[in-house]
Design a protein that fits this description.
With about 350 residues, the protein is an alpha/beta fold. The chain has 2 domains: about 170 residues, Periplasmic binding protein-like II (D-Maltodextrin-Binding Protein, domain 2), CATH 3.40.190; about 130 residues, D-Maltodextrin-Binding Protein, domain 2 (3-Layer(aba) Sandwich). Helices cover about 35% and strands about 20% of the residues. The chain is built from 11 helices and 12 strands. The strands form 2 sheets. Strands 1, 4, 5, 6, 7, 8, 9, 10, 11 and 12 form a 10-stranded mixed beta sheet that branches. The protein has a two-stranded parallel ribbon with strand order 2-3. Helix 5 links the parallel strand 7 and strand 8. Helix 5 packs across helix 8 and helix 9 crosses helix 11. It starts with a helix and ends in a 9-residue tail after the last helix.
Length: about 350
Amino acid sequence: MTSFWRRLPILLLASLLMVCASASWGQEVRFLRIGTGGTGGTYFPIGGLIASVISKPPGSRDCEVGGSCGVPGLIATAVSTQGSVENVQSVQKGELEMALTQADVAYYAYSGEGVFADGDPLSSLRAMARLYPEVVHIVVRAGSDITSVADLAGRRVSVGEAESGTLVASRLILAGYALSLDRIEPSFHKLGRASDLLIAEEIDAFFMVGGHPLGAIGLAAENHDLRLVSISGEAAEAIVAANPFFARDTIPAGQYRNIGETETLSVSAQLIASEQMHPDLAYRILRALWHPNNRPVLDTGHPNAAQIRLESALDGIAIPLHPGAARFYEEVGLTRAGVY
């Protein structure tokens, strides 16, 4: 007992120091997970950049003196996943606090339609921001006789991982050409694995949805002759008409070695969160993401991150905005009819 009373001043001093330190940091440490995609795609590096600009670990210098402009006490990390479908499911279940996902996947998940028609709607999903357009890549070997999506009938085709947005888009595009998974020999691979199998001639083509240039495709194209199959003409128009999340787009020449300009389709990448996230935290995250001091990080960190712009943050949003996000966009004067 005597020993305890002798140690009491030390214990009180330690507690006081901890309280003072906590006060100086602004709030207690909070960890946040951002679901992304495979490490060879676009979501993982983009998620990492977002994590870096919204984080402000305890002890960081203030934003005004060149330090972090993130949320005080927040430590965000990018988590590699299979992609959009896994991400929306994990956000719904509380296994991820935020995630990147394709706009079509977010809508179908929230409304319980499309590939989510057999289950309950993922009604806790909330939009934070539209990020950038993602284009559909259909990659074949340069000497392949596959010149149209219709030529994929009966071929060995990787259509994306089992819980990826690429798989969702693949099904919709195949349907636009009167095809389905039953009419091809489908496989379900990560981007890097699909690229390796194509080069080894173990598959004939693969789909991948992501911002260009995709690192794994670029690396493969540096050492092997590849080609992109276009999505164009009446079939493309029909796909866009039936699926308004798609837009006509083009992969410019020079994105990949010896591959010319290719017509294709795109769908936007979005940042989502759970409705369970505290509105003040969501508000602070967006203040950090769009802080002018963080613009250079996005502009130089990745080609697609440079397209993450406040003025387009509400484009294509078809699920409810998070209340904290709605508050932020209202304050900056950015609104769109019917979004919230």
